[in-house]
Amino acid sequence: MTRIKTIRQLGAQWVTQDPFLFCAYHHDVFPRGNGQLGPDASLEGRLIGRDFQEKDGWSMYHGSKIPGFPSHPHKGFETVTIVEKGLVDHSDSLGAAGRFGEGDVQWMTAGRGVMHSEMFPLLNEDEKNELLLFQIWLNLPKKSKEVSAHFLMMWHELIPVKRVVDEGGRESSIKVIAGKLGDVQAPTPAPDSWAADPANEVQIWHIHMQPGAKLTLPAASKGINRTLFFYSGESIEVEGRLIPERHSLDLEPTEETSIQNGTKTGHFLFLQGKPLGEPVVQHGPFVMNSHQEIQQAIYDFQRTQFGGWPWPSQEHTHPKDRGRFALHADGREEVK
């Protein structure tokens, strides 16, 4: 039995399997900051408000002065935002807010609907500001699409990392964001998530392999979907096949999969989960089970704005001197 089911080349949005909807990948090397959280560089020639051009190695996205994504709605699914480098300023229609990054993960359940903004403050004024971000869209089952919106922070200090050393002494490190790997258990996910039930075997791992390292991914149950995203490195060998960087592999779940890394450090994202097996109807940031439900979601948003926008700007950011923090809708605050 072949352990590789499908191989795909990676773009900016990565193709995923049920229960995941897709994964957005952002890697920008922004200029130094201008003292107002924006880039100290001319914006001339950029399509402000829709700049995805990667001109000079970075984009403004939908931001006008600060890069990022001004207020926009979500409904019917979850976002798992892994910020490996750089920072994100979060604000939402529940009155919650936060600044997180440098390895932190935010897990947000949109449920019945929420508006939020994700801006990328450029705090470094003496050097460039690198951003490396993955945003995974994880579907919610029909029974959970109308749950209350919620977000939690997984601070990088609390996310466990399993280190595996092969027979040649070369190390692989696996950050366990969701699920379990051997004796290493991830932090508890959002309470209404498909990942909250261990029977669904949801795994989200961020993997780094030293040059030449070998790593074996353990088997899962029959019917589980699993994908390995090889986003940076030189090449890997899997089941005798040489795979260059910037490719994903859908893997057979019931067999172990051995990976032999090439001559550069390899970086990977691994997603796994039991499929929901439900109809998926998506209209932009709304994900439901039928066209009728999509129409209702649009009507609900037009009528309520999912609570409205309590912040002074659609591109709200936090004070320059503010550190990593999370302010929850119930007033509870975490400071790192």
TrEMBL record:
Residues 205-307 form the Pirin C-terminal domain. InterPro entries: Pirin (IPR012093), Pirin_C_dom (IPR008778), Pirin_N_dom (IPR003829), RmlC-like_jellyroll (IPR014710), RmlC_Cupin_sf (IPR011051). Pfam families: Pirin, Pirin_C. Residues 311-336 are annotated as: Disordered. Residues 315-336 have a biased composition (Basic and acidic residues). It comes from the Bacteria. Residues 62-138 form the Pirin N-terminal domain. Belongs to the pirin family. PANTHER family: PIRIN, PIRIN-RELATED. This is Pirin-like protein.
